[in-house]
Amino acid sequence: NHSYDTYLTLGDLKSAQNTLEQLCRIAANDLEVMQRKANAYLRCRFVQGEKGKQLRQWIQKIIKLAPDEPGSYDLLARYYALQRLNTKSLSTSQHCTETHPNNPGSWYNYGFCLFRAGHFSGAAEAMFKAYKLYPNDYAICWALYEILPFAHRSDELEPLIEKMLAMFPERWSMWAIAGR
Taking Cα atoms as reference points, which of 71, 40, 65 lies closest to residue 55? Predict the structure, then answer.
């Protein structure tokens, strides 16, 4: 699993794919391996045809194996979103935040579901809930930066950008947005 992550981080997608396939042969019923495979398919947007059916079956199996794991339902919500089933995506994500209110990933995914559906104010609120749980998470901070202008809350950007510059000075993207 760690070499898969390393290859992804380095951008060596071919080696990452080969490692994931090998993991699937060795530990096909391992929850973490199945989640990684589902995430890989979602990143590639494989939600139609045979691969889409396969992905749906994996997600159902993941939910059966770990019904209390919020990430399982987040996979399902992302699957629905890629199928453009926004109502199902929203209800699945909302259910996840209700059953796991202290999971920042659930709020993060719910925020993006709301954002994709055009509910910008609700998206900002959901992302702020994720932010309150994990205020030092780059992805959550970046999502707030992206969502706040759509929610007509641009006045909250300056302190957020200042905080992000202090926390993530090594990220060139932070300096680029600070210069705007």
Answer: 40
